[in-house]
Amino acid sequence: MKKSYEDLRSARWFAPDDLRSMGHRSRAMQMGWTDEDWHGKPIIAVINTWSDLSPCHHHLRDRAEWVKRGILQAGGTPAELPVSDFAEQMLKPTSMLYRNLGAIEVEEALRSHPVDGAVLLGGCDKSTPALIMGAVSMGLPFIYVPAGAMLRGNYAGEKLGSGTDVWKYWDERRAGTIGKAEWDGVQGGIARSYGTCMTMGTASTMMSIADGWGLCLTGASSIPAPDAAHKRMAAASGRRIVDMVWDDLTPDKIMTEASTRNAVTVAMATGCSTNAIIHLIAMARRAGIPLGLDDLDVIGRTTPVIANIRPSGKDYLMEDFFYAGGLRALMVELGDKLDLSTLTVSGKTMGEEIAEAKNYQDDVIRPLANPVYHEGSLAVLRGNLAPDGAVIKPAAMDPRYQTHSGPAIVADSYAALKEIINDEDYPMTPDHVLVLRNAGPQGGPGMPEWGMIPMPKALLKQGHRDMLRLSDARMSGTSYGACILHVAPEAFIGGPLALIETGDVIEVDIPNRSLNVRLTDEELAQRRAGWVAPAPRYERGYGFMFSKHIEQADKGCDFDFLRTEFGAPVPEPEIN
Ligand code: FES
């Protein structure tokens, strides 16, 4: 049923003929607003993650104007609210430390202001989950506007992919096969426009996931940031949110178990970033859907990787993906692996949204019969080293490590790790397993992207480009290699990873999803008795609160008190 003006949330601020509402109206008039702006029309928050230090979101100040144009065209009133920029490359020690803080910021910005719906502008890695987690917890109708990927990189006529090629050329520089001039050429050519990383890294994965979930105009996630279609999409999103408010199309009607399975299936088919696992779990749980690691593994086992985009694919980048038909075409190829009856923000079903879509280049978006990788790009491993799970991306590693056992070389910190990987004469073979611990949610802190441990110089010198690496950290979605990540529970809180020693034999069996250390329960118990917990990372400030409330990777690294089932729902603010 359509809402009336009296039903609007913002009317509680502006409609009554009383002292407090007069204050709201007079202060709105102070900004140049009139009765026309608040009476009889929804007020739409435009949540913007633009900043001068966010290269991926550099165009969002402009795109907010296109969103506002759309809102005005449809008879709403836009109100832009800035939030954190979530700038992946700039925030230290890691933007992951701030994802939940950002989600709180979004939720409370929506709750505390006189707004009826929201348009969320973001795309750089943590911004998408933070925006969606916050908006879902608030529960107002919202539509997500993905920032879109930047143009393909270029150096000396070669296509460059964000992150992926930086790692590749860095290994070559450390191996001495390229010099400073080539390295500077890569630096100047790898990021040629605004927009997010243009590999299928965390940003592109998360934008695609939101799209598959039905949270943006279908296909919006594939539009490159500099394409004129991106502006048109932003304006169309502004027009659409106004109707979503009148129709009361709240997120619980879109984020169902079926649409969550679609989102996971899309993630797997894109060859998604390992980070997506943490964010998928966190976002689903905010929507009251108890998604777990094993659910992801089950869908992963039956979903081939069909997006031939680096780093899981070889030749192509997000710009190529768009020209091939983008996410709509990928969903057409997935066919009955998706539930096409799910609702999207447009008010139509996913099936209606992709009815006209076509795959224009079947080497970029492969048919199911000719995948890039035969099953999902992510595998969940368990065993005595990771009782609560660990993840690996088999599609982007040397297949020789699918089943492997080898002696551990253990580093307790990133500083200790650097000494090992920079020592050309460190005694090691490609059979060794390099372990970094104390880099998890509490230990990092914030679970930094240290999990793609750079290849040790000693092995690069021998001509090797991959080895098995193991940590409780995350890695960038643009990374690749035989890296086992997100080991839970983490070492810092006494997970089994804390107990292993250099020389212990690590056993990995990806087809059978196992990760063990060759030690008996008695040996592990003996070591545990002698384990001393490290000193807390923080004694005050936000980090202190973070350490007290952060959950482990298998639960999505949300704060415990933000979970849907934690206490009674937050009430609407009193207006008096
Ligand atoms: Fe922003 Fe990669 S740094 S998307």
Automatic annotation (TrEMBL):
Q: What is its EC number?
A: 4.2.1.9
Q: Which Pfam families match?
A: ILV_EDD_C (PF24877), ILVD_EDD_N (PF00920)
Keyword Iron tagged = yes
Tell whether GTP-binding is among the UniProt keywords: no
Q: Which residues form the Dihydroxy-acid/6-phosphogluconate dehydratase C-terminal domain?
A: 363-557
Keyword terms of this UniProt record: Iron, Iron-sulfur, Lyase, Metal-binding
What GO molecular function annotation could you give as one example from this UniProt entry?
Answer: iron-sulfur cluster binding
The protein's matches in SUPFAM superfamilies, at most eight in alphabetical order, are given as: IlvD/EDD N-terminal domain-like, LeuD/IlvD-like
Query: Where does this protein have coiled-coil stretches?
Result: none
Domain of life, per lineage: Bacteria
Name the protein family: Belongs to the IlvD/Edd family.
Q: What is this protein called?
A: Dihydroxy-acid dehydratase
Species of origin? Candidatus Rhodobacter oscarellae
